[in-house]
Amino acid sequence: MADAYDALQDLAQALAHRSRLRILEVLARDEACVCHLTAVLGEAQSHVSQHLRVLREASLVVDRREGVMVYYRLADVRVAAIVALLKDLARQADPSLELPPVPTAPVAGCPCPHCAAARDRVGESCSQ
What is the Cα–Cα distance from 58 to 75, expressed in whole angstroms? Predict the structure, then answer.
């Protein structure tokens, strides 16, 4: 019985960091590369990579390679539901709690292909 709770504890510990929760929140929207997550979180690339390693080892995220880029996504959609539930519980405990929104537009300073393509699309629609 203790072994089962050890597994739950390990999973809870992987979730128990503000940066990892934010990463999961971003990935709930769409896959992202390290440079994009670095721009969104405003943290050093090495820190983001360490958090991604913890999340990967806990089987919360998976990655795929596209050329030199590595993209991360949630391993299971239920991870997004867990983060949403945690946010709801936190707001219930403190109704004045305001969590920053996940960016939907290209992130300033992010060189990733997704942000670059989105900036190009915005530029195209402005010039038409």
Answer: 10
pTM of the predicted model over 0.90: no
- Reply yes or no on whether the pLDDT at 125 is more than 50: no
Instruction: Report the C-alpha gap between 57 and 55 in whole angstroms.
Output: 6
The reported pLDDT for the residue numbered 116 is 83
12: number of Cβ within 10 Å: 11
Q: Is the dihedral of CA 74, 53, 69, 35 positive or negative?
A: positive
Query: What region does 42 belong to: left with phi over 0, alpha with psi -120 to 50, or beta?
Result: left
Helix/strand/coil (H, E, C) string of 60-75?
CEEEEEECCEEEEEEC
Q: From CA 31, how far away is CA 33, in angstroms rounded?
A: 7
Lookup: tokens for 18:
């503000």
| 116 Cβ contact list (under 8 Å, min separation 6) | 106
pLDDT, tens digit (0-9, with 9 covering 90-100), for 29-73: 999 999 999 999 999 999 999 999 999 999 999 999 998 899 999
